[in-house]
Amino acid sequence: MRSDNVKCGMQQAPHRSLFNALGFTEEEMKKPMVGIVSSYNEIVPGHMNLDKIVNAVKMGVAEAGGVPVVFPAIAVCDGIAMGHVGMKYSLVTRDLIADSTECMALAHQFDALVMVPNCDKNVPGLLMAAARINIPTVFVSGGPMLAGHVGGQKRSLSSMFEAVGANAAGKMSDEEVREYEQKVCPTCGSCSGMYTANSMNCLTEALGMGLQGNGTIPAVYSDRLRLAKHAGMAVMEMYRKDIRPRDIMTKDAILNALTVDMALGCSTNSMLHLPAIAHEVGFDFDISFANSISEKTPNLCHLAPAGPTYMEDLNEAGGVYAVMKELADVGLLNLDCMTVTGKTIGENIKNAVNRNPEVIRPIDNPYSKTGGLAVLKGNLAPDGSVVKRSAVVDEMMVHSGPARVFDCEEDAIAAIKSGKIVAGDVVVIRYEGPKGGPGMREMLNPTSAIVGMGLGSSVALITDGRFSGASRGASIGHVSPEAAVGGPIALVQEGDIISINIPELSIQLEVSDEELAKRKAEWKPKEQKELTGYLKRYAAMVTSGNRGAILDLPKA
After folding, report:
1. Does the annotation mark 468 as catalytic?
2. Nearest to residue 262, comparing CAs of 344, 357, 375?
3. Is the peptide bond before 481 cis (omega within 30 degrees of 0)?
4. Do 380 and 459 belong together in one domain?
5. Interval 330-359: pLDDT, tens
6. What's the number of domains the chain is made of?
């Protein structure tokens, strides 16, 4: 056992004295020590129930012959952090989570791990850590929130943000907004649509790192507790068979996950996190892969905000396995990839059934013949930009309009809510990239304000920042290179015409090469407030959005 390094031999007598202080028995000293990475906290609605999940995991581990030992991981609620300085501290936690989990696991020589994440950066951060540490590891998330109900219709957090925009436009009263406040988030769990948290939990299942139902079983269902117990049992079986994360998270598995991403219509944030996870296993993930996979992968699901269905509906329809079975039946998945069950993807999904063809469209009747995400390139984004194509209305698939330029999110929101943005405009928000933010803030407030003001079918938004999975409309993010390093988005001037063509995967600034060269020669970096603390270190080390905003040592 790896843990023998801290438990066995005369040299480890001091170590054993410390285990005695923890209350370990001699019998426990002889068993594998399993770290349970608990992301429980009392500030994230998706994490407030994780203490119950952790206890269930502990029972499963103990029943299967291991000794469970809990240690923590941090997590930020992107919804609460949204629209203020707090959002600078969201994406940056992904790498803190990976680093701190690596430190804890290796310092204490655990034999295996069960990761208990749920929301946003917590999931990819722990997947990155799992790849680094490479000891038997199973994931079990806290599960999605049930949808709220307002006026007899299902609603979610994206509806709440859009209600604020509708209120600013005089289309919704303060009392109606108050009703939304009270009803759209009715339970614990990750927000009920196909936002970032649920996207990553579903992709964890598609990668093979979580058991069936990991991405879709609602947080409040007892099935979630049973799943957690089985996760604890599964990791012990992985330990006995020596199945490790890098046996599972291969290049083929990551491309499988990207394929499932296209079918589900996941958050654009997956195009930050999949490259970062791939980097940890030594796979150079180019975001342009998305287009070649999208070209042959139909979009089968329109979950909120793209459509009227929610995670609970996907679960009842057969979940991620049912989606994967649709894809597998036409040869779009590698079925030989290993999973945490000790079986291959093909073996796992063999008997999966699509129970609701309205929620999971059959492969021969998709929402679209191409996938949910697209990477756009052109002179405005030479290294790429990302759009959730499945959440864009038909009339905005091709759009050309004047640039309305803002150097921060707050200025853009003020202009939108005061009626200064009109139909046809292309809102440009820059200096919000990984370095420029720093931290690459999510732009849910401005996208929701655009929709709430009734401009969702006539106004586009382009940014070197990123979007919440709750954003919809012609929202194009991750523009690379970003403004802070002198990317073309830094050179856009008020009134410049920007042309977007999503079917042709292009985004173009209608300005001559000569004029752009002139502007580039005159460009000066935007002055920033003096950074301190972690943000200062992060800004110095972070790479561009097209590389997954991974951290890299500055080149000498």
Report:
1. yes
2. 375
3. yes
4. yes
5. 999 999 999 999 999 999 999 999 999 999
6. 4
Q: Where do the DSSP E strands lie in 66-183?
A: 67-72, 112-116, 137-139, 148-150, 153-155
Give Rg (Cα) of the chain.
23
Residues 223 and 240 in one domain: yes
Q: Do 359 and 451 touch, CB atoms closer than 8 A? A: no
Cβ–Cβ < 8 Å for 135, 244: yes
**Cα–Cα nearest to 132, from 240, 243, 6, 245:** 245
Q: Hunting for tokens 């002055």 — which residue is that?
A: 527
Residues 122 and 221 grouped into a single domain: yes
The residues with which 429 forms a beta bridge, in sequence order, are: 406, 463
Say if residue 97 is in the same domain as residue 166. Answer: no
Q: What distance in Å separates the CA atoms of residue 211 and residue 232, rounded to the nearest whole number?
A: 11
494 in the same domain as 345: no
Residues 133 and 155 in one domain: no
Containing structural domain, residue 164: 150-183
In whole angstroms, how far apart are CA 401 and each of 6, 421, 458, 473?
Answer: 64, 12, 10, 15
Residue 82 sits in a domain whose CATH number is: 3.40.50.2300
Are 334 and 468 in the same domain? no
Residue 550, both tokens: 């991974």
pLDDT in tens, 375-411: 999 999 999 999 999 999 999 999 999 999 999 999 9
Full-model pTM: 0.96
Please state, in angstroms and rounded to a whole number, the distance separating the CA atoms of residues 111 and 129. Answer: 15
CA-to-CA separations, 274 to 256, 258, 296, 360, 435, in angstroms, rounded: 11, 8, 19, 23, 20
| Active-site pick, 190, 267, 390, 468 | 468
